[in-house]
């Protein structure tokens, strides 16, 4: 059993044994026939995956920890596979409904007026979120794009180098 699956199944309040067959099934079709069950399953997976990402258990190419993005890849599905229930079949529905990480970032933001180097900003954000280590390159790019384009909280020169400047 992978560390990711062990972490998720260890969330006893969400992943109760009686609920596991439903959580690993293709519950996407229940959206119309059983919306309560559908949304309960989506929320359980969404929260579990967000918690796993924040804990640094989601990886891109098995090397770079992802905390703000999640790709449904064969590697992720393999890490979530259980001998008893197989692979979770409705993760695409979960990903479409997800957004909790960005909501958490919004609630923790504050108005600051300073200039940062991109690498320094990444370290400070990681520290503020309680993340051990650094944000991955793609997580930092996603966060900067979101903050610059969708939540006009900063301006940055758009470079991907660690010396790119940010104006908050």
Total number of strands: 5
Please give the radius of gyration in angstroms: 18 Å
Distinct helical segment count: 9
Task: Tell me what portion of residues adopts beta-strand conformation.
Answer: 5-15%
What is this structure's SSE topology?
Blueprint: H1 3-9, H2 20-24, H3 30-33, H4 35-54, E1 59-60, E2 64-65, H5 74-79, H6 91-97, H7 100-108, E3 115-117, H8 118-128, H9 137-150, E4 155-156, E5 165-167
Antiparallel strand pairs: 1-2, 3-5, 4-5
Features:
three-stranded antiparallel β-sheet, mainly alpha, two-stranded antiparallel ribbon, 168 residues, 9 helices, 7% strand
Describe this structure in words.
With 168 residues, the protein is mainly alpha-helical. Helices cover 49% and strands 7% of the residues. The strands form two sheets. A three-stranded antiparallel β-sheet has the order 3-5-4. It has a two-stranded antiparallel sheet with strand order 1-2. A hairpin with an 8-residue loop joins strand 4 and strand 5. The C terminus is likely disordered.
Briefly summarize what is shown:
This protein has 168 residues and is mostly helical. The chain contains nine helices and five strands, in the order H-H-H-H-E-E-H-H-H-E-H-H-E-E. The protein is elongated and about 50 Å long.
């Amino acid at each position: 059993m992978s560390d990711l699956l062990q972490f998720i199944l260890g969330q006893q309040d969400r992943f109760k044994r009686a609920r596991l067959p439903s959580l690993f099934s293709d519950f996407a079709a229940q959206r119309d026939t059983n919306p309560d069950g559908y949304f309960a399953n989506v929320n359980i997976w969404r929260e579990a995956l967000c918690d796993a990402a924040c804990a640094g258990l989601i990886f891109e190419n098995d090397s770079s920890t992802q905390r703000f993005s999640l790709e449904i890849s064969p590697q992720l599905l393999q890490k979530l596979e259980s001998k008893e229930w197989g692979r979770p079949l409705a993760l695409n529905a979960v990903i479409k409904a997800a957004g909790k990480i960005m909501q958490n970032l919004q609630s923790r933001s504050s108005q600051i007026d300073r200039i940062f180097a991109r690498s320094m900003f990444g370290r400070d954000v990681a520290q503020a979120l309680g993340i051990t280590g650094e944000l991955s390159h793609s997580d930092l790019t996603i966060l900067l794009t979101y903050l610059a384009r969708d939540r006009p909280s900063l301006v940055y020169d758009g470079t991907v180098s660690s010396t790119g400047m940010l104006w908050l």
